[in-house]
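[job 4471] stage=fold_predict status=RUNNING
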Amino acid sequence: MRRPLAAALALVALAATPALAQPPGVAAPGAEREQAYVEALRREDPAIADRYVALRDARNAAIADVERASTRYSAGGDALRPVTLPQLRQARRRYAETSLALLDFLDARDRGTLTRLQDDVARLTRALDERGRGRAELEQLRRDN
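[job 4471] inference complete, writing structure tokens
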């Protein structure tokens, strides 16, 4: 495995650890923002919200799997590393797959949002142009009278 990827996975695992290790009833950092995002998705379309939650939960489970596999790999010593390495590789592969699926979801959603916003901008620009032409006609009428 390349060092930058290993470092990135280690950072993800370390960043996820506090969130996963929260005592019951204690919200993880960013949990309120995450919940607000899910609620906004749910208002828009409950099926989209459910899809996002499923993808997010799968990625979080994959992060936990990478952490457990990394711990087993590190704790196993030289003798057990050949046994635990395939599990670690599988956990990393699953993490990459679930992360990519979540990114694909977010990219598709953001592209849709951009398209809607671009349509709204075009509509508003046309309305401004029409009002500008109407304003020019009214100002001309006012000057002529």
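[job 4471] summary: The mean pLDDT is 86.
[job 4471] exit 0
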